[in-house]
Amino acid sequence: MSDTSLAELLRSRGLRLTAQRQLILEAVLELRHATPEQVHTAVREVAAGVNITTIYRTLELLERLGLVRHTHLSHGSPTYHPAGEDQHVHLVCRSCGAVDEFDPRLLEPLAGQLAAERGFQVDIGHVALFGDCGKCGERK
User: Fold this and answer.
1) CB within 8 Å of 16: residues ≥ 6 apart
2) Do residues 31 and 39 touch, judged by C-beta distance below 8 A?
3) DSSP SS3 for 86
4) Which domain-ending residue is among 60, 82, 104?
5) Is the dihedral of CA 86, 66, 111, 31 positive or negative?
6) Hey, how many other C-beta atoms are within 10 angstroms of the C-beta on 92?
7) Residues 97 and 116 placed together within one structural domain of the fold
8) Could you read off the pLDDT of 88-140 as tens digits, one per residue?
9) Count of structural domains, the chain
């Protein structure tokens, strides 16, 4: 998203574009999957005065604006990623922490079965599967 379109989106909601908001969005776009703490580390490399509370509040704002989404890839902080991407399922390596993605259509049969049998609607954009990535699996 360009600075101009972000500024216009914020203005349309009665908000203004600040350097901190821009830096936080840029960090999420660059990191692709990042916790607020990881975003904070990236932003502090450019602007040392940005505190973690600002990171959390801005990520919540950016999510309300539809620019980022969050998912839970562990028991800790949520992980944020750009919202403009296609929905995807997260593969999380328990050994090294790597996060990979795959096409959610692979889960459609399971989602359909859950809907038919239990009336449960799966939010595939929030699905995370845990295990060992190929590299860590080879080491074991």
Assistant:
1) 7, 10
2) yes
3) coil
4) 82
5) positive
6) 21
7) yes
8) 788 989 899 888 888 888 898 999 999 999 999 988 767 889 999 999 988 87
9) 2
